[in-house]
Amino acid sequence: MLKVSEDQIARELDSYLHQALTQPVVVDTADQPSVVVLSLAEFERLQDVDEQHWAECVRQANVEGYFDQQHEVRHRLATAMRARRLACINKAGK
Asked: Does one domain contain both 30 and 50?
């Protein structure tokens, strides 16, 4: 994981965007990490891991004979937010 300051990334954005294709780039603002730049492939991989986790939670809940309504609401909200983020990413990439 590469760490850079806000000033560094502002000066050399192209370079850090290229590096983000192979490793996360953490941007420190005011001496505190606040943003991570990831490749789209890594972002999608993390989304898949998250979806698999929640799907397994649902399967487990169904096997145990109950279904948590709050869990379902959180899952649907997360799915909608994920779709919105991906739409924004795709829109920004065009």
From this structure: no
